[in-house]
Amino acid sequence: MGLKMKKMNQQSFRRLLVRNIALPLVLGLVTCGVFLGLITQLLSQTARVDNSNKIIASANYATRLFIDAETGLRGFVITGQPNFLQPYNTATNQIPIEIESLDQLIGNNPIQKNRLKTVLDKYRQWINYSETVRLAKTEKKDAAIIVSAGQGKFQMDQIRELFNQFVAYEDSARDTKNRETAESTNLLLTIVITLSLLSAAVIAFIGRKQMMGLSQSYEDVLKSSQDRNEALQKQQWLKTGQTELSEKMVTEQNIASLGGTVVSSVAQYTQANLAAFYIVREDEQLERVGTFAYASDHEEKVVLKFGEGLIGQVAKEKKPIQLNDIPSDYIKVSSGLGDTSPKHIYLFPVLSVDQKVEAVIELAYLKPVEGRTLEFLNQITESIATAISSVQFREQREAFLKEIQNQAEELQTQQEELRVTNEELEEQTRILKEAQMRLEAQHAELEQTNSHLEEQTQALEIQKDLIDQRNDALVEAQASIQKKANELQRASQYKTEFLANMSHELRTPLNSSLILAKLLSDNKENNLTKSQIEFANQIVSSGNDLLNLINDILDLSKVEAGKLDISPEEFAVKRLVDHLEKEFKPVATDKKLALTVDIKPGTSDVLFTDRLRIEQILKNLLSNAIKFTSEGSVHIAVSNVRPATFGLSGGSQDWLRFDVTDTGIGIKKEQQDIIFEAFRQADGTTNRKFGGTGLGLSISKDLARLLGGFITVDSQPGTGSTFSLIIPIKYDEANQNENTKFAPVVSSSLTRECAFMAREENTKSIATAQPSADYKAFIDDDREKIETKDRSVLIVEDDEPFAKILMDLA
């Protein structure tokens, strides 16, 4: 009996093990398998959603590349400056790579692949069109006719529409994937819960105490799965919100529209009931530029300072503020059916990468703010700050370019007024010469009358009074002519002084702008993007072009004043020619021209004259030769020549001759004198095609005269030109006056008035410099603190802001 009972107990124990261990273990394995399948499916769905997000981001980036290419081409067509093609070249190089990346991301989707193939075909058509426009602009043809035909715009609109369809398709696919994930998750959770309940019910009949622990384990696993599912949904919600906000911000062009877009998108995505966007302006002021669901009595413009109110406090401390249990009279949320009061308000700063406050956003909620909402708001601040910086830089660049264009237009207007004044003065001079000729004729008539009166002695006394009256009238007329001549000379002097003063006043603020733009392009703090550095370099390049134009006008005024001196020195001819070849070789190579130099046998090795003036003349001749030559070569020849060959005095000493020969467009015979006049070129067409102020040859001609020499030209249209500079080997002022037969006048673009002068000085020399009586120190004087070994810089500038900029730069 005992053995039988023991056997029954063992059987019962085995059955208990089967019931309480084996059965829960089997059910647990099944449940774990279901959980693993659920997690695997969720991860797979999340990966597909991430892939859709990558495809959308890549498509948006490709769209921006197309916009950059179109903008760069448009800028080149408008300005003709090759620098504007930089975004076009970068985009056209990157677009095929980005399309290939998109093709890999979309896999075997036939719809999207067909769209990509169509985009690539349209892009190739647009590339052919853009190359046609660029080539026409490069060859100085009217590219605007090609652009106005609308072919490029139509192709680009088709590409944008295809990308919009591409992104819309991926958005729909992503939403479908999210919906399928949620449905499958709910189904699997239902199955798991059902199995758990059934297993719990079965095991409860067998052993409640043992099954309680197993049930608790199942609950823990279920909770972990739910937590993980919620975490995945939360991450998906955060990424979707960031992607949608970035897509909306990328197309905004000004701060007002950007603020409205940001505050509307954030409020709708986080289910805020009211929202406001405050942008940071200068002097630490906050201006409200965007609202969401505000009533009309709250829409007026609001400006706050840092530390003023909750908005100003958030900007000052750079920390968010959350308010709960808001009073009912604080603000109202209104609709067509009624209004109510929000209960919770959240204010947070928009910080850039370097922790600079760019804006403050205020959100009001009827319900408590969720944790995932706070996390989302914290993650989007950097992208919003980047968008604000981009829009602000674009607005500043457009304002600066507009200001430069206005200044250029004003300068052209003043030049036209000066031209009209010169024509009036020339007309007055002609009238005075005619009056003088008439007076000379009257004087001759009077002499004939006197001879006749000598033969008629009796009539002499009668006509004597009449002759005296005519003589008095002649004296008065001569005095009037002299007075008008003085007025003409004084008007010319006023014009010259006006040109000099105007050039100085324009150059002072322009130098300041160039230095500030150069500091931006250097990017020493590495806080600018590649595009921003490129924009700064374009500002520097445009400013230098404007500065060169101002300097040419100043040179013209100095030529008319005739107050520059010659500083002769002895230097090697070969060294001068080698320097010119080294400087212009890259320019000629860039235009695919051959630049050659030939120093003839027997040519003098040294030259005694003003080296800077000789360099300026030859640089002007070489620059013109390269500019007006599209193919072929430019040749420099140096040789000795006898002055008697040109009918000039100079004894037996040889002169030096520099010949600059090109294979360019050539000059007609009747226009070879015109090109040496100020502001003149061969004809209007040349001026429009090749540009320039027309001052180079005029200044070069006067410089050659001042050095005792002259310039000749030999040219035929279509075959090229040869400009020859002939000067004495040894400069002699007396010989110069005899051969040139004109008052020495000269200008030099090499003697520019510098924006600042800097040199190293020792302590003793600095200590001897004393300020004048009317000196006003707006920068601390540290001369007494300088040691002997210190390097020092002396800044001479009467403009306080510009002087401080120079000091910081030094």
Descriptive account of the structure:
This protein has 810 residues and is α+β, with helices and mostly antiparallel strands. It contains 18 helices and 15 strands. It has helices at residues 2-79, 86-106, 110-138, 143-148, 151-206, 208-249, 255-270, 309-317, 371-455, 457-522, 530-561, 573-590, 611-627, 684-690, 696-706, 733-740, 763-767, 800-809; strands at residues 274-281, 285-292, 303-305, 321-324, 333-334, 339-340, 344-351, 357-365, 569-572, 594-599, 606-609, 633-641, 655-662, 710-716, 720-728. The strands form 4 sheets. It has a 6-stranded antiparallel β-sheet with strand order 3-2-1-8-7-4. A 5-stranded mixed β-sheet has the order 10-12-13-15-14, covered by helices on one side. Strands 5-6 form a two-stranded antiparallel ribbon. Helix 12 (573-590) packs parallel to helix 13 (611-627). The model is unreliable at 1-6 and 737-775 (pLDDT under 50).
SSE diagram, text form:
Elements lengths: L1 H78 L6 H21 L3 H29 L4 H6 L2 H56 L1 H42 L5 H16 L3 E8 L3 E8 L10 E3 L3 H9 L3 E4 L8 E2 L4 E2 L3 E8 L5 E9 L5 H85 L1 H66 L7 H32 L7 E4 H18 L3 E6 L6 E4 L1 H17 L5 E9 L13 E8 L21 H7 L5 H11 L3 E7 L3 E9 L4 H8 L22 H5 L32 H10 L1
Parallel strand pairs: 10-12
Antiparallel strand pairs: 1-2, 1-8, 2-3, 4-7, 5-6, 7-8, 9-11, 12-13, 13-15, 14-15
